[in-house]
Amino acid sequence: MQSIQELASAVQRVINNVEKVIVGKAEPVAFSLIAVICRGHVLIEDVPGVGKTVLTKAIARSIGCTFKRIQFTPDLLPSDVTGVSIYNQKTGNFEFRAGPILAQIVLADEINRATPKTQSALLEAMEESQVTVDGITHRLPEPFMVMATQNPIEYEGTFPLPEAQLDRFMMNIKLGYPKPADEMNILDSHQYHHPLDDLEQIMTADELVHIQEQVRAIHVDPTIREYIVAIAGATRAHNSVYLGASPRGSLALYRGSQALAALRGRGYVIPDDVKLLAKPTLAHRIIVAPAARVRAVTSTAVLDEILQSVPVPGAWVGGGKGR
Q1: In this predicted model, what pLDDT tens digit does every residue of 266-310 receive, in sequence order?
Q2: Is the pLDDT of residue 320 over 50?
Q3: Is residue 322 part of a domain?
Q4: Model pTM?
Q5: Sign, CA torsion 140/66/201/35
Q6: Stronger pLDDT, 317 or 286, i.e. the higher one
Q7: One domain, residues 108 and 184
Q8: Residue 318: is its pLDDT beyond 90?
Q9: 159 within domain boundaries
Q10: Residue 253: inside a domain, yes or no?
Q11: Residue 303 lies in a domain
């Protein structure tokens, strides 16, 4: 079994590799890798052209996973995602033709452009790592991850993701525009060819599965668990919130904090890990009340207020094997 330091070093090499392509976005890249090692899914919400698709491709290539892209459009059918059974005249049997969802890393591009019926085809896959077609269940490969993108600006012809769908995503991250110096580096790196073409594989899918299992052993003190539950509970009781974070959100924050601690070479979680991941794991699960929305209150502002008000575990004593 790897030590915590070896695990952290392995994941950091993947992050460094991805950053050769995604320049100047250390935090979003790290968050994406945290979701990968937590068996979580990521929703990347940002304007076109900032590298959402390239990020997904770079992660898939770095960890040696099979990659499929689904371009979501209004005429896309659920069977276009999951696959379909086709009658074979020679054998007299129905044969299953797998859809693009049966890959290890799936890019759901512009997910909010598909109809709710097609969006719902992802629900079973994202929660249970399986798809059911014509009453027959097909297991998805390990590791399995959906990275979805959507454009927050152009709402015409889109179908906003329902709460049940948003809740399936472990994290919602934004890339944002690069700084001028980083944009200069992007121009230089693209002069002759796309840097993605030179990206090397850093680890295998089997090594990733092993890391996913190891991360679950990271120690989380009961006071830290209470802190996570208190933050989630505060979102449900807040005056400006119509619907607070679900228990799935608490679990996402718990798992993410374990992964972040491992990434930082620790065998135990500290309050700062929880604070850093509170927004990417909980903000998209919070629905702000209409009256508060009129006052321009956002879910991130609500979380800022909650993180200021919920008492941080003080007399905390770490534990765990990796300490």
Answers
A1: 999 999 999 999 999 999 999 998 888 888 888 999 999 999 999
A2: no
A3: no
A4: 0.88
A5: negative
A6: 286
A7: yes
A8: no
A9: yes
A10: yes
A11: yes
**Exposed (0-12), middle (13-18) or buried (19+): which is 174, by Cβ within 10 Å?**
middle
Task: Respond yes or no on whether the N-terminal peptide bond of residue 143 is cis (omega within 30° of 0).
Answer: yes
Same domain as 167, residue 123: yes
Question: Whole domain around residue 296: which residue ranges?
Answer: 218-309
Report the Cα 208 to chain-centroid distance in Å. 15
What would the DSSP string read from start to end of 250-285? HHHHHHHHHHHHHHTT-SB--HHHHHHHHHHHHGGG
Domain count for the chain, please give it: 2
- CA contacts within 13 A on the Cβ side of 109: 16
Q: Specify burial of residue 302 (Cβ count, 10 A radius: 0-12, 13-18, 19+).
A: buried
Spatial distance between the Cα atoms of 135 and 132, rounded to a whole number of angstroms: 6
> Do 245 and 188 sit in the same domain of this protein?
no
Number of H helices, E strands in the chain: 14, 11
The gap between the terminal CA atoms of the chain, to the nearest Å, is 16
- Look at residue 84 in the predicted model and tell me its pLDDT: 87
Provide the pLDDT for residue 319: 46
Give yes or no: residues 205 and 228 share one domain.
Answer: no
Coil vs helix vs strand at 288? strand
Category of 177 on φ-ψ map: left (φ > 0), alpha (ψ -120 to 50) or beta: beta
- Rounded to whole angstroms, the Cα distance separating 81 from 65 reads 19
CB 137 within 8 A of CB 176: no
Residues 193, 300: one domain? Answer: no
Contact partners, residue 265, CB within 8 Å, separation at least 6: 4, 5, 8, 322
Q: What is the CATH number of the domain that holds 83?
A: 3.40.50.300
CA atoms within 13 A on the CB side of 99: 25
Instruction: Tell me which of 165, 189, 212 is where a domain ends.
Output: 212
Q: Are residues 152 and 278 in the same domain?
A: no
Single residue among 196, 212, 228 that ends a domain in this structure? 212
Helix (H, G, I), strand (E, B) or coil at 221: coil
**pLDDT at residue 124, rounded to an integer:** 87
For 20, 36, 58, 237, 291, the CA distances from 33, given in Å and listed in that order, are 15, 5, 11, 31, 37
Read off the pLDDT of residues 150-164 as tens digits, 9 standing for 90 and up: 887 666 667 888 888
The CATH number linked to 301 is 1.10.8.80
